[in-house]
Design brief:
Number of helices: 17
CATH topology of the largest domain: FAD/NAD(P)-binding domain
Number of domains: 2
Structural class: alpha+beta
Distance between the termini: 69 Å
Oligomer: single chain
Length: 598
C-alpha cells in the first residue's frame, strides 16, 4: 500500500496497490451488447489495442445465452406484409406507449440488416425448406418476425459475436468485477475493478466507457437469471456516477418459469422459453381448463407477457394451481420430431429431469425476467456524463412498460451497432481535454475496496442479498400496492443498516463479490420501490392493486437521480412522438391471430 496526498496537500489513508490499464474505450459487459459495440468500433477502423472488453465471467459466458426463444426483425419470411413500422407499432403497444419512439424505430429499422449480418457471420439460424431464415410467432406480435436457432438463440448469437470479436483480435479480460466509474468534471475517465481470480485491484484509464453490464431482475427471489448476474451492476454504476435512471418500476415477470418444488430449488424460476408457446404450447390449470380462454380469447397463450403472467398468478391465487404452486404448459399435441427439432434444449432439459415433453406437460409459474428500465440515454446511447454510454438491458427507453418478446436480443445488437458508430466518430476527434491521473481519481474507491476485503463484521452478505430478493418479491412483485411498497422501503432501511456491518473474506472470495452485489442491489431496489410508489396507476408490467386503472396523465417516464445530499429525487419526463409511418401502423391496429396455430 502506498501513501497518497490529497489535492490540498494533506496526507490521506494509504491506497491499496493496484494495476493500471490504459485504453481509449472500455466496454463493461460480457454479453451481446458489449461484443457488438466492440466489433463495430474495430470494423470502423479503431485499433483493437485501443479497445478492452471486461466481464465478470469467462469470455462468452453471459446472460445473453439464456435468451432462448428468438430475435426480432421484420424479414417477412412467412408474412411479407410485415415491416419495421409494424414492428415498431407492436413494440409501442406492448410498452403501453411510454417507450421512446425514436429508440424503438432505431431498433426496428436496423434489425433486418443486422439479422442478415449475423447470418453472414455464421449464426446457425433455423431455416425454412428453401433455406431462408425461419421465423416463428411470439407473444403480442402481429406477424411471425422472431428469427431463431432452435430454442438456444441467445447462445448461438453470442457464440457468433465472440467468434467475430476474436477474428478481429479484440482484447477481452475475464473475471473482473467493475465496482466504480471514474468521472471528472462531468466526463468519463475510466473505471475501477477487482480481478476476482487474483484479488488485485485494477484502475482502467479510458476516454470512453460503455456500460453493457445487464439489468436487475436477479434482485428478485424468483428470477430467470443465474444468481450472480443481472444484479443491478450497470444501473447502479451509472447512478452512483451521477446519471439518472428511468422506468425502473417496470419489471417484466415472464409467465413461464420452472417450479422449484417440482424440479428442485436450483431450477426455481429458470426460464421455459416463450418459444414453447410460440410453437403452440397450451396452458392448463389443475382442473384441466385452458384458462387463457377467460383472459384473452383472441390471443390466448400468445398475448402480452404481462397479461399471461397475471392470468397464471390469478389461477394460482384462486386455488386452481398445481400442488407445487404452478400451472401446466403442454405441447404434447405436437409430434415428437417437431419438438426435438424446434425446442431441442427444452426437450433435453426436461428429459434430464425425467419429464418427456412430447408426452406430458411441465409445471410453470411467473418469474422475474427483465428490467425495462435502466439508465437514461440519448439517441446514441450516451448518458448525461460525457463519454459514458449505456446499452442493452442496462439502458432504458426501448421497451417502455413491458417488453415485446424477442426484442431484448434485437436491442443488444442494434444499440451495439449504434453506439459503436457514435464512439468511433468521437475517437476521430483528437481534442479530448487532459485531466487528472486516473489512479488519483480512483484512490478513494480503492481504499473502499481495501476496507471491504477481510472485514470482520456481523452479517453475511449472501444472506442479506437473499433477504433483499425476498423483500422485492414480496413488496414490488407482480402485484403491488402502496402499503406493500412503503413497507418495502422501511425494510430496506433495516437491510442498509445491516450492510454497514458485513463479514467479508478476501477479494478473491465469494463473500467479497456478494458484498459488492449487495451494495449495487440496495441502490437499485431503492429506486424500484420509490418509482413504484410514485406511479399511482397500473400500466404494463407495473400493477398497483390500489390503483387498477391506467392514468393518461401518467403517460410519462419516471426519472430517479441523486438529490445532492445522499437521497433520491424523482421527476418525470415527457414522451416523444412516433414518426408518421409508425403512427399509421398504430392506427391500422395490426394484431396477432392466435388461431392460425390451431
Amino acid at each position: 500500500m502506498n501513501p497518497t496526498t490529497n489535492r490540498d496537500g494533506s496526507l490521506s489513508a494509504a491506497t491499496p496497490e493496484h494495476e493500471t490499464v490504459e485504453r481509449r474505450v472500455l466496454v463493461v459487459g460480457a454479453g451481446a451488447a458489449g461484443a457488438r459495440t466492440a466489433i463495430e468500433l474495430v470494423e470502423r477502423g479503431v485499433d483493437p489495442e485501443d479497445v478492452l472488453v471486461v466481464g465478470k465471467r469467462a469470455h462468452g459466458d453471459a446472460h445473453t445465452t439464456w435468451a432462448r426463444g428468438g430475435i426480432n426483425g421484420a424479414l417477412g419470411t412467412h408474412d411479407p406484409e410485415d415491416d419495421p413500422t409494424i414492428h415498431a407499432a407492436d413494440t409501442l403497444d406492448e410498452g403501453h406507449h411510454v417507450n421512446d419512439p425514436a429508440k424503438v424505430e432505431t431498433v426496428t429499422e436496423r434489425m433486418p440488416a443486422l439479422l442478415r449480418e449475423l447470418d453472414e457471420w455464421g449464426m446457425e439460424f433455423s431455416r425454412t425448406e428453401d433455406g431462408r431464415i425461419d421465423q416463428r410467432y411470439f407473444g403480442a406480435q402481429s406477424f411471425r418476425r422472431t428469427a431463431f436457432a432452435g430454442d438456444y438463440t441467445g447462445e448461438a448469437m453470442l457464440d457468433t459475436l465472440v467468434d467475430r470479436a476474436r477474428a478481429l483480435d479484440i482484447p477481452y479480460r475475464e473475471n473482473v468485477f467493475v465496482s466504480s466509474l471514474l468521472v471528472e468534471d462531468g466526463r468519463a475517465r475510466g473505471a475501477v475493478g477487482t480481478d476476482l481470480d487474483t484479488g488485485e485491484f485494477v484502475v482502467f484509464d479510458a476516454d470512453v466507457v460503455v456500460l453493457a453490464a445487464g439489468g436487475y431482475t436477479a434482485l428478485y427471489r424468483r428470477h430467470s437469471s443465474r444468481d450472480d448476474e443481472n444484479t443491478g451492476d450497470g444501473p447502479a454504476l451509472a447512478y452512483l456516477a451521477g446519471v439518472p435512471l428511468m422506468d425502473v418500476e417496470f419489471v417484466q415477470f415472464h409467465p413461464t418459469g420452472m417450479v422449484g418444488r417440482r424440479y428442485g430449488e436450483s431450477w426455481d424460476g429458470r426460464l421455459v422459453t416463450e418459444a414453447v408457446r410460440g410453437e403452440g404450447g397450451r396452458l392448463y390449470n389443475a382442473d384441466g381448463e385452458r384458462f387463457m380462454e377467460r383472459y384473452s380469447p383472441d390471443q390466448m397463450e400468445l398475448d402480452a407477457r404481462d397479461v399471461v403472467a397475471r392470468a397464471i398468478a390469478n389461477e394460482i391465487a384462486a386455488g386452481r394451481g398445481t400442488d407445487h404452486g404452478g400451472v401446466y404448459l403442454d405441447i404434447s399435441h405436437r409430434d415428437r420430431s417437431f419438438i426435438e427439432e424446434r425446442l431441442p434444449r427444452m426437450y433435453e432439459r426436461f428429459a434430464d429431469l425425467g419429464v418427456d415433453l412430447a408426452e406430458e406437460p411441465v409445471e410453470v409459474a411467473p418469474t422475474a425476467h427483465y428490467g425495462m428500465g435502466g439508465v437514461r440515454v440519448d439517441d446514441d446511447g450516451e448518458t448525461d456524463v460525457d463519454g459514458l454510454y449505456a446499452i442493452g438491458e442496462t439502458m432504458a427507453g426501448v421497451h417502455g412498460a413491458n417488453r415485446l418478446g424477442g426484442n431484448s436480443l434485437a436491442e443488444t445488437v442494434a444499440y451495439g451497432a449504434v453506439t459503436g458508430e457514435a464512439v468511433a466518430e468521437r475517437l476521430d476527434d483528437p481534442s479530448a481535454p487532459e485531466g487528472d491521473d486516473a489512479a488519483a481519481l480512483a484512490a478513494g474507491h480503492l481504499r473502499d475496496l481495501g476496507a471491504i476485503a477481510d472485514r470482520d463484521g456481523t452479517h453475511d452478505p449472501e444472506a442479506l442479498l437473499e433477504d433483499l430478493r425476498e423483500l422485492l418479491w414480496d413488496r414490488a412483485g407482480i402485484l403491488r400496492d402502496g402499503d406493500d411498497v412503503a413497507a418495502g422501503l422501511s425494510a430496506l432501511e433495516t437491510l442498509r443498516e445491516k450492510a454497514d456491518d458485513l463479514a467479508v473474506g478476501a477479494a478473491t472470495s465469494r463473500s467479497f463479490e456478494f458484498a459488492l452485489n449487495l451494495g449495487f442491489g440496495l441502490v437499485v431496489a431503492d429506486a424500484i420501490l420509490r418509482a413504484a410508489e410514485r406511479r399511482t396507476e397500473s400500466r404494463g408490467a407495473h400493477v398497483r392493486t390500489d390503483y387498477p386503472e391506467t392514468d393518461p396523465d401518467l403517460r410519462r417516464n419516471i426519472v430517479v437521480e441523486q438529490d445532492g445530499v445522499g437521497g433520491m429525487r424523482l421527476s418525470t419526463d415527457s414522451i416523444g412522438t412516433p414518426s408518421d409511418a409508425v403512427q399509421d401502423a398504430l392506427d391500422a391496429g395490426y394484431e396477432l391471430d392466435y388461431h392460425q396455430l390451431e
